[in-house]
Amino acid sequence: MKKRSGIFWLLAVVVSCFTSYSSLAMAGQTCPPTMGDAVINFQNYSITDYPTLPPGSMLSGAILGQENRSFYNCAEGTGPVTMRFVADNGLTVSGVSGVAPNGTGAPASVYEVPDIPGVGFAVGVRETTHCAGQPVHYIAAGDDNVAVCSTSDPSQMATQFFVVFYKTAQEIVYEQPNSGQIRAGKLILEDANGSVISEAGVNVEVAATDLKVHKSSCYISDNNISVNMGQSSVSDLNNGIEGEKHRFTIPLICESSQVNAVKIGFFGPTEKDGANNDVLTLSQQEGAATGAGIRILYGDSYGAAQGRPVPLNSTAVEAFTNSANQTQFSLNYDAQYVRTAPQVTAGQADSLATFSLIYN
């Protein structure tokens, strides 16, 4: 019996100048860009700050801003290359080093959001065709670039971008929108000798227009949650049997018991057809399963709504059950594989969503 397995990632919810990386030797442009800019988009996203959180705290999880786009067309026989993300030398490095959003590796280099004092961001990059099993790569504090992926076959290199927001000062200017896009850096390719073979490079920008920070009376105490989805039978899914439910819990802490105005919403890539717009798409990667997705269901924290699908990319979500004197909550949800196409094929079945506090 064919089975498929995967991990469902939930991520709670972008400088002193270093030596310019453009001084590297330039080889022949054997990998010209297919487009000039990569824009990291996230729609209607707002950040909430809990006033007592110290500088350096994450204000969001890793927000997936653009998925699986190919930016280079390398000539056949190009040979081994390394994809590298280089920070823009116009950024201002903040006074804090961010905790690595994936929980591993060196602290990330955090750059100030130009129009919102007290808030900074880090950009993460992952190549999903040849280096799909690797974590998201962030520029480490004190560096101005990071190697994303090395491969001997640079054809069809697909890239994901992520943005994480951090608190960079104790005092934050609330409700002040950022005025425009932020030039975050450049994506380049190097040959085995370290020479740049993508002369123009691809400019990476964070579409942070209208981004605002709200003062919060509640905060989520774990911004990164992984759900082990185990294995599901392809045969069962093809026969209309939904996958086993896997429980996960979001911990919420509030400064008072008056939390009726806050809810939790989930945001991420969904199936394009109307029938499955509440199902997260599987990450496109080498050996990925097809014809299925992941649905999030309300758990037993939601009374009569338990077992119903959570609407995605929407603020119209259910309020959780609130006991009168509670200030700490463990909000339960379930995730399961469901079929989204006539035929499911076996393979790796990962997905990613962002969760965020929503205030009425």
UniProtKB/TrEMBL annotation:
Give the matching InterPro entries. Answer: Adhesion_dom_fimbrial, Adhesion_dom_fimbrial_sf, Adhesion_dom_sf, Bact_Fimbrial_Adh_Pro
Q: Which organism is it from?
A: Silvania confinis
Alphabetical list of SUPFAM superfamilies matching this protein: Bacterial adhesins
A Pfam match: Fimbrial
Q: Which Gene3D superfamilies match?
A: Fimbrial-type adhesion domain
Keywords from the named record: Signal
First and last residue of the signal peptide: 1-27
Q: Where is the Fimbrial-type adhesion domain?
A: 213-359
Q: Output the GO biological process annotations, alphabetical, semicolon-separated.
A: cell adhesion involved in single-species biofilm formation
Taxonomic lineage per UniProt?
A: Bacteria, Pseudomonadati, Pseudomonadota, Gammaproteobacteria, Enterobacterales
Record's protein name: Type 1 fimbrial protein
Superkingdom: Bacteria
Q: Name one GO cellular component term.
A: pilus
